[in-house]
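hi!! sorry for the late reply, been swamped w classes. u asked for the two structures so here they r. pasted raw, havent cleaned anything up. first the sequence of the first protein and right below it the tokens
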Amino acid sequence: MPSRRLHRRKKKILLATAVFLPLVVGVILLALYLRLGPRHLSEVERRAIAGRFRETIERVGGTQVWVKAPPYAAFPPARVDSAAEVLVMPATFDTVLTAVKRRAEGEDLRISIKITQAKGRWRLVDVHLARGREPAGRWRLREVGQLRRAAVIIDDLGQDLEAARKLLALPYPITFSVLPHLLYSAVTAEEVHRSGREVMLHLPMEPDSSAQPGKGEIRIGMRASEVERIIAADLASVPYAVGVNNHMGSRATTQVALMGEVMAVLAERRLYFVDSRTTAASVAFDAARRKGLPTFYRSVFLDDTETVTYTSRQLREFRRAIEGQGAALAIGHPYPTTLTALARFLPELEKDDIQLVPASQLLQLPEVAHVTPPRPTNP
């Protein structure tokens, strides 16, 4: 009897094993297939993954990284086998690479890394990402000794809406400086803001001539309360302005007290200031620094002469200024000749590893805090 019961028990165990073992094996195989098998990644999924990697790289690297991608185009590159290129300064290179590895782990992606030396001493890292056997993206981290940045401001906007729209058609982060109280001031600022570009107030200031800067002018002899009232009204007519540069002002910007009053108003409103330097005797830049504003100055005027040849020559001068000090800012106007020259020149900046950024981003760079405009020399 005991042997018969034992036999029945073994028979039940064998039966249960025969039923449940294939089920367990099937679950394991399904899990392995889902993890390692050929699962297709859609374009939407691939772009979402790339976006999260980009956010991680830019958050960790801060001002010491540049994800080279057109600002207003889809990201990443359209072809799955094309690498998204990232320029990284040496001080943060290892931190960025570690963050990429952790992001891959968090995304449940396999990561393959190849490190080589580029140009003698700088590292070049090729990163291949995959989910199972399906490619999920490629990144190339390129170590560089310096990141060079530039900003281009186009001012005198607000008079001609069509000119602003032509400028908006250029796929670059140009900064738009709008004059106050004009027919198209508000609508220009609103369209620029909707496009994701940056808006500035082009603040009229008294010139050292009979020229008329226009309504909303800052003049010598104004009281502090009047300066505050005028700037408030000017800003109200140019919505979304996050910074200011002077329109004309070759007389006003030489006045220490007046510039101190202007900068006090801008500081209270947390705006930045760019000195257009319509005169070498301007004290506006120094006044802005004393008030703690993010500030910079115009390195090059692009179009004192309205020809493509002249502006192209000035753009080459602009490139030399960028290469000389690592950062520079150019100011131009919405002339057809200027737009033509910019359309030809701006693609060359990226090829030369020069990043075009909004004016506010240029002013926040740590290296810009140590740059000052040329000082006039006494004869």
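now the second protein. again sequence first, tokens right under
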Amino acid sequence: MKKSITYWFVFWVIIGGLAAAPLYFADNSFRLNLMGKFLCFAIVAIGLDLIWGYGGMLSLGQGLFFSLGGYAMAMHLKLQNSGTSLPDFMVWSGLDKLPRIWEPFSSAPFALAMVVLAPTVVGFVIGFFMFRSRVHGVYFSIITQAMTLIFSLLFIGQQPITGGTNGITDLQTVFGFVRADETFLRVMYLVTLGVLILSYLLCHRVINSRLGRLLVATRDDESRVRFLGHNPVVVKTLVFALSAGLAGLAGALYVIQDGIISPSQMGVRPSIEMVIWTAVGGRGTLLGGIVGALSIGWAKSLISANYPEVWEVIFGLLFLTIVLLLPKGIVGTIRDSFSGLRKPAKTETAAAPETAETKKELLAVD
């Protein structure tokens, strides 16, 4: 009980600090906008931590789902910004008519639905066929990385429809509001923070539900879960699709605040950076996703601004140092440190029955 109170106290303190950011950056809209983007990254990291930290599925394809949600939102905003004219990149490509795939995105409800549905469906299909074939471990990571690369090349090659290498750019207005307006940036920051809180609470609810216990049990011993009558394919597919949907939602919020989306955000490198956020924050903690995304985001921004010529080297060394010194991440290390101070050492004999009871709870059949 005391552990739960401490956990939620820390969580709401962090949220309170984030909620105060518009006041702290009242005279610096650039920093506030940057902070809003980092909150989008935190939503992705929470979803990745759900499947990696609790499910043991290291996905290197979250950039794909992030970009699918981003493109869905950008297509609607581009049509809004273009008015009755064709989007500029379509004119440059020689089109004289709006492609059919773009037509439904003139509707805001349709676009908002596709922000979540498109990445969720793609994640469900990819996950189902991989998990049904019992693909796991490094092979799962390689396939998700390959899917990201394939989609990236596909979007680059479809210049008249997707904008090619440049992507969809110059999104000046959002639902009638000027995107660069300071008041709008503050509102969008708070909206993004609200989505982050809801995403966290949803994932927390999942991992503390029967589905979450089955997910952890599947990670530890998939064969035993199958033997007890459960279907690991369904469990892993549902959670993977949920993670994809959260990434798509984060991508849409990112596009609103950045005003651009391109295949470069769908590539392998962004997906690897998302893994770094989770690893640095501490996988298997959920809260680590938030801490990792914000920490790495600010570190990257400050180092690149002050040391533009060698910032990648410094950033790489910083990441290696954190991983080597804090293998469980920032939050995981702090949690273990406080647990060690609070709890007396237990003998091996006393711990064995507790472990067995935990396994029974995880694998209980209704």
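hope this helps!! also noticed smth abt the second:
Residues 300 and 309 are 13 Å apart (CA to CA).
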